[in-house]
């Protein structure tokens, strides 16, 4: 168990999928628990005038400052952590607050939609965090796709066609709260809050009247290149099926010299069995001649499912195990995604892949076989409950305006990030 909170149930309160815990505690009841847990680490608020004193003390006592290294070192050591805001998630208020919290928790990179307003929200969150505590700035990554992809779609339906007696299972199954109740403010002609929908697709099969469909899109390459040329973006992630190399090459070539601005390029792909390594090699050959930065392979196990439950992480761990045994794979760091959650590291440890170095002559033996983990839906879920709670009050939506809630959110985020970072275990 992470050392962060010594109360056994408080660390895992919101990571538990048990409804009895979610029903038993709300955020106002949890705040004193987080405070008590912080005090158990010697963090007190007696006569403290500085509003972020407990937040700063928690960061220090957790050992984050001494554990933070450069992004390259994190990749080499196998403790790289990326926050995935979502390739299609565009709620700038939530994105700002998520970026604030996870910057303080010590992530190496924040991945977001390739939209200028979203990138600004990430940057604002990072700077808000650094104004609280002088922590290393994470890289900012934007995501694009070379063809149709699950991460680049939105649900859509006509709310006027919904029968009044429908129990609307779509509302309860949506992890992003993108489907408001009928008649509530914010409803659009598409039936959803488009900026919140990130395309998980869970609403599609549950509609009893089969009224919900999905619209897919491909990010505009010219707009993406312009965004990169403006500066402020450190990394690019290309989502691909691995089966359409022509589309990949067209996208890559269209990026032109904008890729010169980047420190890292990631390629996110699914496990396509025996075709995985040949596809990786073909894409590497396309990229290697005009990109001299860091390349990373994101293993997309079970897309957008980490918040569902413990078992969601099995596919990405299996994918990692498969790829780690492939001696002919191209160079590049390997990072897990798609179904990642608080149990991912446990799965890597069972496979002997957590922060272990390569034994192959084809790769640098000083580097970890698996360089890190990206957390998306699960990371957003555990902190999102706090963020939604302050927004429901109808007042200021900046999380730092509520230091007790910030402490609460930070406690939850650190408990996740330190599964990879291993704070205070050095």
Search tags:
alpha/beta, globular, 38% helix, disordered N terminus, two-stranded antiparallel sheet, 426 residues
Overview of the structural elements:
- The chain is built from 16 helices and 10 strands.
- It has 426 residues and is an alpha/beta fold.
- Helix 13 (314-324) links the parallel strand 8 and strand 9 (333-337).
- Helix 4 (53-62) runs parallel beside helix 16, helix 7 (92-104) packs across helix 15 (377-392) and helix 15 (377-392) runs antiparallel to helix 16.
- The longest helix has 19 residues, at 403-421.
- The chain is globular.
For the largest beta-sheet, the strand count, sense and barrel status come to:
8 strands, parallel, barrel
Query: How many angstroms does the end-to-end distance come to?
Result: 15 Å
Ranges where pLDDT stays below 50 over 5 or more residues in a row are 1-37
Strand line-up of the largest beta sheet: 1-2-3-6-7-8-9-10
Count the strands? 10
If you compute it from the alpha carbons, what radius of gyration comes out, rounded to the nearest whole angstrom? Answer: 21 Å
Brief synopsis:
With 426 residues, the protein is an alpha/beta fold. The chain is built from 16 helices and ten strands.
Give the helices and strands, then pairings.
Elements: H1 8-11, H2 19-24, H3 27-40, H4 53-62, H5 64-67, H6 71-77, E1 80-84, H7 92-104, E2 109-113, H8 116-132, E3 139-145, E4 153-156, H9 169-173, E5 213-216, H10 221-229, E6 235-239, H11 245-254, E7 264-269, H12 276-287, E8 294-300, H13 314-324, E9 333-337, H14 344-350, E10 372-375, H15 377-392, H16 403-421
Parallel strand pairs: 1-2, 1-10, 2-3, 3-6, 6-7, 7-8, 8-9, 9-10
Antiparallel strand pairs: 4-5
Helix pairs in contact: 3-16, 4-16, 7-8, 7-15, 11-12, 15-16
């Amino acid at each position: 168990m992470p050392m962060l909170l010594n109360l056994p149930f408080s660390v895992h309160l919101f990571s538990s999928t048990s409804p009895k815990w979610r029903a038993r505690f709300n955020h106002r009841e949890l705040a004193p628990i987080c405070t008590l847990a912080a005090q158990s680490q010697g963090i007190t608020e007696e006569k403290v005038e500085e509003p972020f004193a407990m937040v700063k003390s928690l960061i220090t006592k957790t050992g984050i400052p001494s554990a933070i290294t450069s992004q390259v070192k994190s990749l080499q050591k196998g403790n790289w952590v990326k926050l995935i805001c979502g390739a299609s998630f565009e709620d700038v208020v939530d994105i700002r607050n998520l970026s604030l919290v996870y910057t303080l928790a010590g992530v190496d990179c924040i991945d977001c939609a390739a939209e200028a307003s979203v990138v600004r929200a990430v940057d604002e969150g990072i700077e808000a965090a650094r104004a609280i505590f002088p922590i290393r700035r994470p890289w900012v990554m934007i995501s694009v796709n070379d063809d149709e992809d699950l991460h680049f779609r939105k649900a859509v339906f006509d709310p006027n066609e919904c029968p009044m007696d429908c129990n609307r299972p779509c509302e309860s199954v949506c992890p992003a709260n993108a489907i408001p109740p009928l008649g509530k403010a914010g409803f659009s002609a598409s039936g959803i809050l488009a900026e919140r929908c990130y395309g998980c697709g869970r609403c599609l099969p549950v509609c009893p009247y089969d009224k919900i469909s999905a619209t897919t899109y491909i990010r505009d390459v010219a707009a993406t290149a312009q965004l990169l040329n403006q500066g402020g973006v450190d990394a690019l992630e290309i989502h691909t099926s691995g089966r359409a190399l022509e589309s990949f090459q067209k996208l890559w070539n269209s990026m032109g010299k904008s890729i010169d601005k980047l420190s890292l390029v990631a390629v996110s792909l699914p496990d396509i069995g025996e075709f995985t390594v040949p596809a990786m090699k073909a894409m590497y050959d396309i990229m290697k001649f005009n990109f001299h930065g860091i390349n990373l392979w994101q293993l997309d196990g079970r897309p957008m499912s980490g918040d569902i439950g413990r078992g969601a992480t099995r596919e990405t761990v299996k994918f990692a195990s498969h790829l780690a045994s492939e001696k002919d794979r191209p160079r590049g760091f390997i990072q897990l995604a798609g179904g990642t959650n608080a149990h991912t590291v446990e799965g890597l440890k069972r496979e002997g892949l957590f922060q272990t170095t390569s034994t192959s002559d084809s790769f640098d033996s000083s580097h970890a076989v698996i360089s890190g983990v990206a957390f998306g839906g699960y990371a957003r879920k555990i902190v999102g409950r706090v963020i939604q709670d302050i927004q429901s009050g109808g007042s200021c939506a900046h999380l730092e305006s509520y230091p007790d809630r910030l402490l609460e959110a930070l406690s939850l985020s650190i408990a996740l990030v330190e599964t990879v970072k291993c704070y205070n275990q050095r």
